[in-house]
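Lay summary. Proteins are chains of building blocks that fold into shapes, and those shapes determine what they do. In this project we predict the shape from the chain. Here is one chain we studied, written as its sequence of building blocks.
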Amino acid sequence: MLSERRLEVLRAIVQDYVGTEEPVGSKALTERHSLGVSPATVRNDMAALEDEGFIAQPHTSAGRIPTDKGYRLFVDKLTAVKPMTGPERRAIQNFLEGAVDLDDVVGRTVRLLAQLTRQVAVVQYPSLTRSTVRHVELLSLAPARLMLVLITDTGRVEQRMIDCPAPFGESSVADLRARLNSRVAGRRFADVPQLVQDLAEAFEAEDRGTVTTVLSTLLETLVEETEERLMIGGTANLTRFGHDFPLTIRPVLEALEEQVVLLKLLGEVGDSGMAVRIGHENAHEGLNSTSVVSVGYGSGGEAVAKLGVVGPTRMDYPGTMGAVRAVARYVGQILAES
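And here is the predicted shape, written in a compact code that computers can read:
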């Protein structure tokens, strides 16, 4: 275990390197930080940190920079993330509250995250497998043609046209709509098949064929929409960090184009706490020079998806973690109220 003093020296090196982009020397550390020890002691501490792999000397520079291991310890020992200011919180809330539908919420969230952190923002659409039914609307378009509208608790709306085997009157449509909602509204997708399995028996024999067709369409819709979707923004921000990538940013850009890679980066939705993966902790080789900060978001305290940012390992971790957490909280509130 590192002593508290050496941990303090490591924190100072990380803060200075993130802020200045320059390798950090012992003289600069003692001038900028109140470490309470002599430059000679700081040099000894830096030598020990280097021996243990927390910092490294790039080229022949007199200064040192943090390694992945050093950043990892810095993040693990963070006592607090940087809070958003009052004006920043109000700006987030006002920007996200203007959204008109789920696509708009996700699009605004991506733009906001990219602006706040100046990194690449990634937002996963709410997973329908973790969603509940808010309402099922059934509309008569013609005597034997209906439209089914499924609305989820995360604001997602799915529409399906249904050709009925026989004419289906307005009173029957209203009856089916009411019975459907009494059974499935507020219930998880996974529970719906069992909840509606005997519903057709409540109708007259001549209507049962249409009721069965409607139920089949509803169940197909629940299954179809479980595919994961993502939105990404702020990729141009990477060009500001060209010197942070050893050779070229091309491997990073290529990795960001692969949806499967991004979903793995964000991690399992069930693990909704803040996650920070640094450098070689990212399994994809193209992202070994990046860090990923992600967290779950959702309504009612349960995560339905994840959002996060990707940037170079030389990142303002407290600020980035604070911004990601704040945006996730506001998105969750908007989904709960929508």
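What the prediction tells us: The chain is about 45% helix and 15% strand.
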